[in-house]
Amino acid sequence: LGGVGFMWKDVLQKNVDCGGFHVQLGLGDQIYGDRLWREVPLLKQWLAMSGRDNKKNVQWTARHEEDVAHAYFHFYTSHFDQPFMREAFAQIPHVLQINDHDIFDGYGSYPDYMQSSPIFKNIGRIATEMYLLFQHHATTEMMRNIRTDNDIFTITGTGWHFVKYLGPAMAVVGPDCRS
């Protein structure tokens, strides 16, 4: 139907027509990190390995860190810089929730030997850092230290959950159901 730009162009027009939206809610899947496994050679090699113990014991390296961080940075900058989308995000306040695809498909529901492996744990960490940076304009440290009655952002286990008050009679609850 012409790509994501046309949807955002329509959102911008509706924003003008109604006198301005109060907020836009993103309920996850703002980006699709699934392509990480196809585009990062070290991760393609890891996927091709046979044996549960082999995958579980692969150590995270500085090269993994650089390649995965670069990939997520590119996913966000290339997606959020699309025409009309960037304008909508600049003009309409937004609250965005993380979902598995913001990391990669199914994250949080894999068998424990994979989910607790250095590869998965560090991919999840980097994806969450990029989510906080691009979707909340914050860092992990900033979010850990939030102390306000209007915004609650909490970490339970490995999950990132929030309550965002949008006025005296409305709040958005964002449970992290995947990490």
TrEMBL record:
InterPro entries to which the protein is assigned, alphabetical: PhoD-like_sf, PhoD_2-like
Domain PhoD-like phosphatase: 1-179
Superkingdom as given in the UniProt entry: Eukaryota
Entry GO CC: membrane
PANTHER family in the record: MEMBRANE PROTEIN, PUTATIVE-RELATED (PTHR46689), WW DOMAIN PROTEIN (AFU_ORTHOLOGUE AFUA_6G06520) (PTHR46689:SF2)
Name this protein carries in UniProt: PhoD-like phosphatase domain-containing protein
Species of provenance: Photinus pyralis (Common eastern firefly)
Lineage, broadest ranks: Eukaryota, Metazoa, Ecdysozoa, Arthropoda, Hexapoda
